[in-house]
Amino acid sequence: MYAATMPPPDSTTATAKPSATIIALQGHAAGEAAQARPEPRPSAPFADRVARWLSLHGLSLLLWSISLGALFAVWYFGTKYRVDFFIRFTNIPTPTEVFAKILEVNKSAKYMVNIGISVRRILSGFCIAIIVAVPMGLLIGRYRAARDLLLPACEVLRPIPAIAWVPMSIMLWPSNEISIVFITFLGSFFPILLNTVHGVTALDPVLLRAGRCLGANEARMFWHVILPGALPHIFTGLAVGMGVAWVSLIAAEMISGQFGVGYFTWEAYSLISYAEIALGMITIGVLGLACSGLIRMLGRLAMPWEVFTNRGNR
Amino acid sequence: MSPIADAKGLIEIGDLGVTFGANGTAVEAITSVSLTVKPGEFVSLIGPSGCGKSTLLNIVAGFVKPTRGTVKVDGLPVSGPSANRGVVFQQYSLFPWLKVRENVEFGLRMQGMPSGQRETMARTLLGLAGLLAFENHYPDQLSGGMKQRVGIVRALATSPQVLLMDEPFGALDAQTRVVMQEILTNMWQQFRLSVLFITHDIEESIFLSDRVFVMTARPGRIKAEIAVPLPRPRTPEMTSSTEFIAMVQQLKSLIREESLAAMGSELKEGGLSGFSMSVGPSGVAQVI
Predict the structure, then answer these.
(1) For the whole prediction, is pTM greater than 0.90?
(2) Is the interface score ipTM higher than 0.90?
(3) Does the pLDDT of residue A50 top 90, yes or no?
(4) Where residue A142 sits, what CATH number does that domain have?
């Protein structure tokens, strides 16, 4: 396609001419195609599009349905027949019970308030993690001195799971709320930091040289070359970080919390409200899915060029 | 923007030497290289692989500091990379996150030119290179030859005094290469700036250059200087003239000596001395 529209090599001035020819050719070809088609029905384009989409994605669609259907079937039949064969479904709520619970909890504001509080904690912890980890990662990736100064402390703290921080965090911070946000922050901080560092060090050195010889000073190198160059890795860090943030948040809410989806689920366990346990789990799953979907969407908006770079795995 | 009338870009390289590594394992890459590129002149550097020709270019670009000697461009000593010296790299070096026109505008943006002016200038330049239709494409949507053309346009956008090119067409197929050579000579003639061009392709160096410098095997020195008397503009037909073929032969034998010297020392270390004598001319040309 590109070869067809590429102007001839000797034309440095007559570039407009060949493209005009090509447009004319394309117009001609389109005219021919229109003539060749006997009688286009009005619904044909839509039906065509659906058919093409199905032929492209039909198999994927089938496999997705099998995947989700199997999951639901295990739950449905397991609870329907009260399966008790090493795994015990005897106390597990049925899908209908859980569905009834959804309707019930939505009558009061309590359930939605819990969701709102959890989302607020996630977003605060996660945003603080981005603000701290991304600049720090850029510096560590770029300067040896920053690496030697900051990385040893990070490497010592990194193996400690965020959940293990819960008791210390409660002592450390003035309020319960802040300590939960801190746990969430910790969970997402390290994945974002390490991926940012990796993004900088994996940057093709020729791009750095190109930036320098086009007159970019150090500050502009950071903003115009290093940050955009590391962006794909940063977004990988954000996706991983978001997952760990949810793990940390739910654990923190279960242990120290008042309010929140984790607290809702743990409270249901204490009150032996089986349907609410399942509802809590499903809520956490849906929220986690929504958050990672949001990150993926932001990534696509922030990096429109990536579509062309990663064509390989489509 | 109209092409600049006066030629610019005097490069003076005086007694240059580079040694890499510490005392014990020091490797002398270049030694006592002196050459001058006149304003508006097209000069090629050719030599066996590993002779330090890329190192020489990196010093002029300001990426590498020389151990000895001086480099001046238009009388000013080189102290680091600058937009006054445009560089076209062997690898594709376009910023993948910027569209073609934004890539061309990059240097101008760093100079603080307002966006409207930047856009006009970039579009003019892209038009000259026949790339205007692709101004809103991302680099990963372009073919290799087009990427390198954008690379050349980007390097020229800041109106540098010299253009430094490090085997820019090395990764392209033979047909694209020939086309690119013509595009480059066209653009060079309009801009009247001096070009220092690194290559290992003998025909390419003659076709493009006013003068060709041949470098020795490591440590790199200037072995010979050959003036190319072919008239401008150069056309592909010239490559079959007797004059052109004679120059190719002359350069081939000069470089062959160096390749054999470079290979000979390697082969002797491997206990295979004498093997180099059985290599025919075509074999040597491939080695180069």
Answers:
(1) no
(2) no
(3) no
(4) 1.10.3720.10
